Amino acid sequence: MVKRKTKFTCQACGYESPKWMGKCPGCGAWNTLTEELEPSKSSRKLTFTASMNEGNAKPVKLKEVETIQEPRIKTDNNEFNRVLGGGIVRGSLVLIGGDPGIGKSTLLLQISSYLSSKDQGVLYISGEESVKQTKLRADRLSVSSDALYVLAETDLEFITKAIEEISPSFVVIDSIQTIYHPEVQSAPGSVSQVRECTAELMRLAKSKGIAIFIVGHVTKEGNIAGPRLLEHMVDSVLYFEGERHHSYRILRAVKNRFGSTNEMGIFEMKEEGLEEVHNPSEIFLEERSKGASGSTVVASMEGTRPVLVEIQALVSPTSFGNPRRMATGLDVNRVSLLMAVLEKRVGLLLQNQDAYLKVAGGVKLDEPAIDLAVAVSIASSFRDQVSSATDVLIGEVGLTGEVRRVSRIEQRVQEAAKLGFKRVIIPKKNMGNWSVPAGIEVVGVDHVGEALKVTLGG
């Protein structure tokens, strides 16, 4: 018997070492190197045989390549279609990640039900549940169709045979960490297994034109478990987010070869399953308290959709040597920068004040256009002055206190007018060259101090 060699592979970044180390030199993570058998000569070729084209491919001129514009597969869920860029692309491999119990399997089972009802063959492969358990969940969601097949299997070879026999248009793998390739001598969920299984699924998707969705578990930090190479291999990466204490879920695209990566879909988890939210601005503002200081409303762009969100701030004297800066849904470094601008350019003494900021509804905002609303909410709480409940603030704040122009101002103002707001404070550079909706006043400002005078009266 020939002795098989072993290696130690980091489960976070894929770094390989001939000996065990407590700290990975590649990513700096501790206790992530696990022992694996070196692949045999036959299994070493697995990754390279997972090509997108069957047989020997030859180089061709780009201008001679003929393309056929195939329509996307649209579902009955407009939010899901929006995040994917208009629908499901045939032959695509999509990865969906999220916390346990957030609703990934529920969403994909509902999408599978709709597609199968439209004469689209669907194969739902569960590596974590038996067929009877999947049936119980389907009954709860009222999912039933003659074209929906269910398979409880973790061996990739059996999964490949089932796909070739049924020839479905849509395949769900739940989850990729439970699938294993029998020729790879390592445990399911390891770097080698995830890489080889994903490469084989990619070959199937591209060669047969099947849209495959794979579910990926996430780590404590919120990243998809396993190395980042999994995200590089697939066509699209979707993250399903949400707080356990809220019924709303947010689906984001962080990578999409067939559409925008800025789109956001909002769902509400109910007993019958996930339902799409058609007007998220009303949801985020329905519990807003009027007459409270530190509250402002901003029109943020999530892809092509404007969303109105409430920003809350609480500023109070500190009892520590260093004041605290905490933010939920905002970048805490951005908050510290805006507080420094208010102190230097406006004269607010904030160096001895604790500041706590939050975006209501569990949404995360990261675009520069929210700066003005954050700055006004901080000043409102510090001065204990209430801003008007019918005001919306839009604008980027520079280090010298200037309010800079933002993109798609007309769409933002139209969303504010649709929800009944009476006044919008925007950068003066954005004034003109577009029509103002009826029933709303638009005020242009050049400096953050000018915005405070307009909203707080001083």
TrEMBL record:
Domain RecA family profile: 69-218
InterPro entries, per database record: AAA+_ATPase (IPR003593), DNA_repair_RadA (IPR004504), P-loop_NTPase (IPR027417), RecA_ATP-bd (IPR020588), Ribosomal_Su5_D2-typ_SF (IPR020568), Ribsml_uS5_D2-typ_fold_subgr (IPR014721), Rubredoxin_2 (IPR041166)
Residues that hold ATP according to the record: 98-105
The keyword Cell wall biogenesis/degradation belongs to this UniProt entry's keyword annotation: no
UniProt note: domains: The middle region has homology to RecA with ATPase motifs including the RadA KNRFG motif, while the C-terminus is homologous to Lon protease.
Purpose of the protein: Plays a role in repairing double-strand DNA breaks, probably involving stabilizing or processing branched DNA or blocked replication forks.
Designated name of the protein: DNA repair protein RadA
Species of provenance: Bacillus suaedaesalsae
